[in-house]
Amino acid sequence: MVVGSGEDRWEAELRALRQELQELRSEQRAMAQAIDQLVTTFRSLATHLGIAAEPYVKRESDRTRDRDVPGFG
User: Fold this and answer.
1) Which of 12, 17, 20, 50 is the most exposed place for a label (fewest CB within 10 A)?
2) How does residue 71 score in pLDDT terms, banded at 50, 70 and 90?
């Protein structure tokens, strides 16, 4: 009977650790979202203040996939 109570104790501890791990993962996800929001905010502020510029992104219509690369034609 002593062995059974020891196993029950280990199983309870394992469940508690799994629950704590789930809580930590949830907190990490929330922190990652908050950090992403901060990055977006800082980029917007830097662009607004003229410290940084938005990266140039070509429109899809400007891209031609079948075009030869200069010098390799």
Assistant:
1) 50
2) low
pTM: 0.56
Amino acid at site 46: A
- Give the whole-angstrom CA distance, residue 36 versus residue 25: 16
Residues contacting residue 43 through CB under 8 Å, at least 6 positions apart? 52
Place of tokens 């020891």: 6
